[in-house]
Design brief:
Order of helices and strands: HHEEEEEHHHH
Structural class: alpha+beta
Helix content: 10-25%
Strand order of the largest sheet: 1-2-3-4-5
Shape: rod-shaped
Number of strands: 5
Radius of gyration: 51 Å
Length: 269
């Protein structure tokens, strides 16, 4: 990583703990991404100037690191703080222009070999992983890059279309383009006409004609007429017929007038 070795050589004499090495690495990532350090502390001071080096007294506390950065185009000012908590470092960065705040927690032993604090070739571990975390979680997004990403996101097609949605119920269309020949819904036998139409001939009427099942039946044929009740031809051949009265002219059983009461000789009595 170009420049990091030179920076580490400049500050190695002041390094006393693994946390110092981590802060040194994060500082260099800021420099690599367009920022320069102005100095230590929360407030600006007279004589502040941008530098790629760490300022004097940057690690005096050992528990709290406070640095100020400014972008190369002078449009962004960052307040950088790192707090030591046991074996971890908690970083916090605020952009004063946008008031954007970002943070990152780092386990020091994952990236620093404490036994080789002053040896550049041995002190760092997994620098690529730490650099990626600093860029993605701690550094503010560059305005040009963020606008390009937003524009690209708007231009990108959706991950799936309506036809590819596995949760979407497919439209059930007819297998052919010709529409089915639906019967007139106002016709008297529109629905189930083949079963309900008594004049349907062979294709209509009842599925099983009780008068044509082959079972013995009486000589009564409603299509021939019911004497005294229905004239001949009143019931179509093969149609279902439920008799609504006794067949024949006379009623079955005794005549209700065959035994008049005693002394009855006048119906108007």
């Amino acid at each position: 990583m170009a420049g990091l070795e030179v920076l580490f050589s400049c500050v190695s004499g002041a390094v006393t703990r693994p946390q110092d090495v981590v802060v040194c690495f994060v500082h260099w990532e800021f420099v690599q991404n367009g920022y320069k350090c102005l100095g230590t502390g929360d407030e600006a001071r007279d004589g502040d100037r941008k530098s790629e080096l760490l300022p004097a007294g940057w690690n005096t506390s050992g528990e709290l690191y406070t640095l100020r950065y400014r972008s190369n185009d002078d449009k962004s000012n960052l307040l950088f703080k790192a707090i030591t908590v046991d074996s971890t470092l908690i970083f916090n960065v605020m952009d004063s222009a946008t008031e954007q705040v970002s943070d990152l927690t780092v386990n020091v032993s994952d990236y620093i070999d404490a036994e080789h604090l002053h040896e550049f070739d041995s002190v760092f571990k997994n620098t690529d992983g730490l650099a990626k975390k600093v860029k993605t979680k701690l550094l503010p997004a560059v305005k040009g890059e963020s606008s390009k990403k937003a524009e690209k996101k708007r231009d990108d097609p959706p991950a799936y279309s309506r036809t590819d949605d596995p949760l979407r119920i497919p439209t059930r269309a007819p297998s052919s383009s010709r529409q089915p020949n639906w019967s007139d819904p106002m016709a008297p036998f529109a629905a189930g006409g083949a079963d309900l139409d008594p004049f349907g001939g062979r294709s209509g009427g009842m599925i099983v004609d009780p008068l044509r099942q082959g079972f013995p039946r009486s000589g009564f044929d409603p299509s021939g007429g019911v004497p005294g009740v229905l004239p001949p031809g009143a019931v179509p051949p093969g149609a279902r017929f439920d008799p609504f009265g006794p067949v024949g002219r006379s009623r079955p059983g005794p005549d209700p007038d065959h035994m008049p009461p005693p002394g009855y000789d006048d119906m108007f009595m």
